[in-house]
Every structure is written in structure tokens, then in C-alpha cells.
Design brief:
homodimer, 165 residues, alpha+beta, Aminopeptidase, seven-stranded mixed sheet, 4 helices
Chain lengths: 165, 165
Amino acid sequence: MLIREATEADWPAVWPFFRRIVASGETYPYPLDLGEEEGRGWWLLPAPDRTVVAVDDEGGAVLGSAKMNCNMSRAGNARHVASASFMVDPDHSGRGVGRALCEYVIAWARESGFRAIQFNAVVETNVRAVKLYESLGFRIVGTVPEGFRHPAHGLVGVHMMHLAL
Amino acid sequence: MLIREATEADWPAVWPFFRRIVASGETYPYPLDLGEEEGRGWWLLPAPDRTVVAVDDEGGAVLGSAKMNCNMSRAGNARHVASASFMVDPDHSGRGVGRALCEYVIAWARESGFRAIQFNAVVETNVRAVKLYESLGFRIVGTVPEGFRHPAHGLVGVHMMHLAL
């Protein structure tokens, strides 16, 4: 698996699984009917923020994507904290794509001089993501009760997770 | 004190204390040198989000301002959570302006059908704000360690605060 910079040319390969994940309404607070153009603007970030894709070594298929950015305004007094979001094609889950992307983000944040990474909204029923982040050293610093309306589980908590670098 | 809808015409009265608060770098993660036009765009929110000003009954001076909004995307599965920000002219502190604005926001959120209000980043050294919010029923659900670089105190924690409605 190769992780490389995402370009506009990658979007047609990202959008189908991005849309599927957003439309499921299980993990992201985005509008469930988010349009393709709007989604592209939300996901493909201009420098110095970054968006990458994880690509299959052999066929070149896009397996997942991550965006990484300063958590709050770049010139403010919280500029030492990074954030990131991840989308892994459900058809390629269980292959370590999410872990590889998250490790990439941690390395990027460290190299970029951030002192921490903060995930602002990890839905507590997204157990696989919570466990992955914890296995990489993140911890839950707080949980907003009933912060997310899961389509199957109803109102569930939303974790804020944090990793000091 | 009257609390009413803020208009573009109020901005020249808001900007001086807004700028002073932002430039102090003690409570907001905004760029310390935020420009007037950019600040206006960040503060005066279009409907259905709202921005109000607290105005002196007698002289009509603007004493403070609050903006209130959906915490995340309005059409997503976290749309039942509101958020808000407050600016009180330091020259008029201690008069209950912040409390009146916060009470207004709570009433607005309740009437608008939100189920909770979440403040994402309350700097822990902003003790007056923390105590005010707690006195109105908010509680700290988590604290990001060293999430903010205070100009005098160095790296300090950032609270996420929450009120169920």
C-alpha cells in the first residue's frame, strides 16, 4: 500500500466510498445527502493542510483517504494542535488501511511541528475507529453525551480524542 | 440592557472590543491580528444562525455580543447540538452582560429545538467564563491538555463544556 498526496484526479475514485460512508450517517456529522462538488471542497484541502490517498500497490485502486489540518485557526493560540479525518473504502476494510493512514497523519503532524493531534468528534459506536486510535496512543479526553443521532442506535456519545506528540 | 439582533450597522461598535479581546490572545483561538473584514464575516452569521448585541438601555452603547449556531453541519446527524461564542466589552465587565447573553443563547437554543449546547474550546484560565457557564448548568465534559498557548500562562488546558436542554 502506498500513501501519496491526493489530487483532483483522485476524487472520482474517492467519491463513491466517501459518499457511501457519509450517506450511511453512522460516523460523520456531514449532511447525509452531501453533493459531490461540496464533498470535494470539504475533503481536498489546500496547503499547508493536506489530503492523501492510500493506494493499492498492485492495481492502483484507491483504498482510503485522510485529510489533516490545523485544528483551529492557523495563526491563533491553538495552532500547535492538529486534527484529521479518515475515510476507508468499506470494500477494503480489515486490510490495515485506516491504521496506515493514521500512522501517516501522526508522522506528518510530528514533522510539521504540531504538539498534539485532536479528533473532535469520534462517534462512540464507531468502535473500530476508537480502538484503532487508542492502539496508536490516543486517549478519550471527554465524551459529549447524546451528541450524535445514529440511524440504528439513536442518540449516542461523541468522543474527543487526543494524542500528545 | 436590551438584547437584539445584530446588523452590519452594529459592527463598527462591536469591532473595537472584539479586536481588543482577540488581540489579547487570552481566550480565543483566532489569529491575533485578525482583520476587521474577516472578523465581521466570522462573527455576523447569516440565518438560521444568529448574532445578537447587548445594548445599554440608556445610552444605547453596545456592551457585548453573542453568536449562536448549529455546532456542526445543519443537515447532519449532530444537528441537534448548538454552539455559541461571546464577546463582552472589557470596559463593561461585571455588569452581567455575559450572563444575559448566555441566558439568551440558552433560550434561543431551546426554542429552536436543539437538545444541547456545546462549547468546544473554553480556555481553562478564563475562569470567569467557566464559572458563569457552570452557574447556568453547563458542565465540563473534557479538557484537552495544553490545548492553548496563553500569552502569560503558557500552555493551558481547553475545556469542552456541555448543557443538555
